[in-house]
Design a protein that fits this description.
Thrombin, subunit H; single chain; five-stranded antiparallel sheet; 2 domains; mainly beta; six-stranded mixed sheet
Length: about 280
Amino acid sequence: MARQLIVNDPLYHRTGPKPQNWEEWVSMFETQGRITGLWRFAETDAHTGEIRKELWNKNVVTDNGAVNILASAIANASNANPWNDILITNNSGSTTLTTALTIGQAGVTALAVASLPAAMPSGTVLLLGYGTGQTQSVTTSALAIQGATSITVTSFTANAAYAIGTNVVPVPQVTDNPANAALTSNATTPLSQYSGVIVGGGFVYDATTGAGNRNVVITYIFKNATNGGTTPNGTYTDAWLVNVASGASNATTGLFVGNYVAHEINTPMSCNNSNNITASVTIRI
C-alpha cells in the first residue's frame, strides 16, 4: 500500500520540489527564535512496520505553554512536572466526503461524509481539502452528532471539484488553557490515552547553532493490547504535549499555569490490531 502523505502547510504546497521526508520539511521553518511546534503523526502497520498514512502539521503552541517551557529552563525554581507525556483523544469531527462536489456547484447546504468520530457544534468552521493545495472554508449551521454521516452547512458554492475521500476537518478552536473536560467534550463516546512518562530514548535533542534551529523531538508509539500497549481501539484526532501522566486539575496561578503546552488537531489516525499510532512533536527555539 502506497504511503498517504497529508501536509497542513500552505508553504509546502507552494514550493517545488516538495520535501518528502520529515527532516526536510522541518528545515523549511525559519522561526527567528520564536517557539514553534511541528507535529508528525504516522499510522503504521502493526505487523510490518510499514507507514500507511502520515500527517505533518504546524500545531498550536499555547501562550501559557510557551511561558511554561521557558520558565522550566530559565527560573530560580524549575517546574516540578516536566513535559514528558503525550495525550491523544477523539475530540474533533475530522472526516471525508462520501459524495463529490463539482466545481461551481451552487447552493450546497449539506455535506455527505464518513461517520463523524466526534460531534461538530453549530458554527464550526470546516476546511474542505485539508492537507492539499486546494481548500475552501465552510461553516456548520446545525449540530452534527458523533456518528452522523451528513453535516448541515451555510449555503456555499464550491470553488473547485472535491472528490469522494476529500478531507473535511474542523479548524482548531481551542482556548489557551482548556479545562480537562473540554478535551473530550465533543465525543459521545470519548477516547483518551496518555503515554505515561516517556522514557529517555523518546527525547532527541539537537543544539544546532542559530535562533529557530535548537530543538527537541519527542516521540511515542501508541499500541493496543494485542500489540503490547494499552491504547483503546478507535480513531484519534487530537494530541497534546502535557506534563501529567493522567487527568489533573489545571493550575491557575504562578508561571506554571495549565497542563497543556502544544496541541495538534485533525489527524485522524486509527489504533487497532493492524495499526499503531506514532506521535512526534518537534519544539524549536
